[in-house]
Amino acid sequence: MTNQNTLWQSLGRLYPHVRPIIPRLVLGLLCALGASVMALAIPQVLRVLINDALAEGGSARTVWVASGVVLLLGVLEATFVALRRQFVITPATTVETKMRTSFYRHLQNLTVEFHDRWGSGQLLSRAMSDLNLMRRWMAFGLIMLVVTSLTVVMGVTIMFFTSWALALIFVAAAVPLIIYGYRFRTSYSRVSRKSQDQAGDLATTVEESVHGIRVLKAFGRSREALEDFEEQAEELRRTEIHKARSLANFSMIVTLLPELALGASLVVGVTLAASGDVSIGALVAFFATAAAVAGPVEFIGPLLAMTFTAKTAIDRHYEVMEAENTITDAAAPVHLDAPRGDVVFGDVHFRYPDAQADADDVLDGIDLRLRAGETMALVGVTGCGKSTLLQLVPRLYDVTGGAITIDGVDLRSFSLEDLRSLVAVAFEDTTLFSTSVRDNVLMGSDATGAEADRLLEEALDVAQAHFAFELPEGLDTLIGEEGLSLSGGQRQRIALARAIAAQPTVLVLDDPLSALDVATEERVEVGLRSMLTSTTTLIVAHRPSTVALADCVALMQDGRIADVGTHSELLARNDHYRYVIASLDDEEIAQLGRAVQPALDDEGALA
Ligand SMILES: Nc1ncnc2c1ncn2[C@@H]1O[C@H](COP(=O)(O)OP(=O)(O)OP(=O)(O)O)[C@@H](O)[C@H]1O
Ligand SMILES: [Mg+2]
After folding, report:
1. Who has greater pLDDT, 50 or 602?
2. pLDDT for 120-164, tens place per residue?
3. Residues with beta carbon < 5 A to ion ligand 2?
4. Which residues lie closer than 8 Å to 148 by C-beta, 6 or more apart?
5. Contact 281, 51 (CB under 8 A)
6. Collapsing DSSP states into helix, strand and coil, what is residue 536?
7. Is 90 exceeded by the pLDDT of residue 398?
8. Does residue 397 surpass a pLDDT of 80?
9. Banded model confidence at residue 188, pLDDT cuts 50, 70, 90
10. Mean pLDDT of the chain
11. Element (H, E) at 458
């Protein structure tokens, strides 16, 4: 990813965030400026001291006054520095937090397709370190850059007034500095971008291996993972060294040139003083000023580096912030007061954005109708697109052709909030969050108080998740990544309870019972049917037992719905259905419940 914005364009994008704190930044700037003025004033006192007090006829009183003034200036300088910090730190951290929050909000809004494309570490590093870099630049880099530049300009002006001939030598030294500065900008920006991207990739690697630690250990792949990591870390180290070297080279020039100029002007200055063209006091003041300016000049290297890094951080931040959310609310959303839950897929086409140009659509004209309250099983060989179809219902992806309607209204005509309260989902891979059982289950519900408690218990009951009451702290037990580890079946049942507790009109379940034993599965199905009589349910089934408990079955083949009917109808008339069912676990067929066994016997289909 490259970003063509110029430095000013990139930095300028911070303006809307910085605007509210401009008064504080200006106060901080004034304080920093105050501190530099104090530092620059000290040589002038020296000049007066040397020219007047130490000259013949000077009084001891002048020495005391001058010393007192120098002391006062020193104290003022320190006070200004402390005040600068005071003014700037709080507002800058506030900006950082706000930007981080809006980044997170944007991540939540962005489509699943975006998240498919972006490594988690790239997002993590943007949310954490890039924003941190930006804050440091805002609170320190920006102010110091302005103040340092002003200090140098003021110092050089004073030097001109003290002795223009000597000052010219300094200005001449600045010319190569500026040329080199331009070169530095290009090279440093490039390497800083590389380092920030590599840090993001490294974060992705850490995230993945922490996530997959069990697999890595079980397959004895920890060492390979470590080697991969070391390689990436080594690459980052090389980039960092390159970066540091680039800054070191620039800093060396920035330090060296003023020193050379100082040496040259010393020779010229002493000659001028000897010939009486410059007073000794002026000469001392000139060099004291030059010394006071040298510090800020040396500081320019790191400050510029910080600015270029901030530019990269801003570019990286906005790459995400500008990623467009293509799944948005309708302009004039339709609201259903009393949704029934008739779901119709009309000639639905879908292909993933990263699909090859010549590949067929994953969904290639799906026609399917679910009547309100009906439970339909969706069956098909693995990889045929069942999960893909389900994800279209809550609009995790939008159809690329055709339409899906609920009660005759196109999904895209609802507001997303409405749609997501109409539809609840339990996915194949159950994700639980690091919070209590209660919060995980009630995630999709707006109910509060006693109503929420009732809903929670009912959902857990239907999902056969009674184990949750027996957890160490009952429903307040922390589960998910940082909490108590649950078994696969337990996780599935919590996820199912979460979908049920949302009280949807349309319930979409992606093989949510795969980890349950057949008896538990049947209890769940019975519970589901009795509780959700008014809920339209589309359930992906990988097991004959799940299939048998649905009102009817849709068979998916080659991106289309090949047949719809009851389980026994399909067994009787559809070869592909028999093939799919036969490919499901034989053992389970042997364990099939009452509902299926007679059908199999009757049809003799699996002989
Ligand atoms: N995020 C994605 N990006 C690109 N292609 C994808 C993505 N998810 C799935 N696919 C592809 O789409 C096709 C259908 O996948 P899908 O997950 O819908 O199958 P499925 O019927 O649910 O399979 P299973 O029974 O194994 O769960 C597959 O070929 C898969 O490789
Ligand atoms: Mg699937």
Report:
1. 50
2. 999 999 999 999 999 999 888 998 899 899 888 988 999 999 888
3. 387
4. 296, 297, 299, 300, 303
5. yes
6. strand
7. yes
8. yes
9. very high
10. 87
11. helix 449-462
Q: Tell me: the pLDDT tens digits for 483-505?
A: 668 888 889 899 999 999 988 99
Dihedral (CA of 75, 81, 86, 87) sign = positive
Any atom of ligand 1 within 6 Å of the Cβ of 356: no
- Per-residue model confidence as pLDDT tens digits over 553-580: 999 998 999 999 999 899 899 999 988 8
Nearest CA to ligand 1 atom 3: 352
Q: What angle do CA 195, 196, 198 make, to 5 degrees?
A: 65
Beta carbon of 539 within 6 Å of any ligand 1 atom: no
Structure tokens at 121: 């570490």
385 ligand 1 Cβ < 6 A: yes
Distance 105 CA to ligand 1 centre (A): 28
Ligand 1 within 6 A of CB of 448: no
225 lines ligand 1 (CB under 6 A): no
Phi, psi of 30 (to 5 degrees): -60, -40
- Domains belonging to the chain, first-starting first, are 10-321 (1.20.1560.10), 343-603 (3.40.50.300)
Continuous segment of H or E residues that includes residue 193: helix 164-211
Contact in structure between 236 and 199 (CB atoms under 8 Å): yes
Rounded to the nearest 10°, the torsion over CA 389, 393, 399, 404 is 110
Burial tier of 333 (Cβ tally within 10 Å: 0-12, 13-18, 19+): middle
Q: Which atom of ligand 1 is nearest to 381's Cα?
A: 25
How close is the Cα of 386 to the center of ligand 1, in Å?
8
**Closest C-alpha to ligand 1, atom 14:** 385
Contact 13, 312 (CB under 8 A): no
Phi, psi values for residue 555, rounded to 5°: -105, 125
Q: Maximum distance among all alpha carbons in the chain?
A: 128
User: What value does the mean pLDDT take over residues 375-379?
Assistant: 93
Residues 459 and 497 sit within 8 Å (Cβ to Cβ): yes
Would the CB of 116 count as within 6 Å of ligand 1?
A: yes
The ligand 1 atom nearest the CA atom of 391: 18
**Res 53: pLDDT:** 67
